[in-house]
Amino acid sequence: MISHLQMITIYVRDLKRAVEFYSQKLGFEQVAEYKDDENHLVWLMPASSRKAEYATQIALYAPADPDDPRIGASSGMVFTADNIEATYQELKQRGVHFTMELIRHAYGDGDGDQEARFVDPDGNQFLLHT
User: Least packed by Cβ within 10 Å: which of 43, 51, 118, 127?
Assistant: First the structure.
């Protein structure tokens, strides 16, 4: 049976710009890179999850076609943080563009049920959620 989710690919137009965003703005660390005549991929993950045995990696991939419809799509990916409010403020200070500001849902109890939506430089959409 399936044991874990290994990797999720995010399609980007400019790989160098994407690596800078994910590492400098989101604080991810590069864990691998692959390049041949046709493909160039860079794998990253949050620094805090590098020690986890089954941590999911993100693979940034710039397809040959800069108009590939997978670039700038809604990813369905949800990130979380120990302190969502502090993380939200830090990401905003680093220049991350939020398309939905941090909100607390009316049904939420305690520290949970907060979310904000942000995009990367290619328009790929992500959710920051508790």
Answer: 51
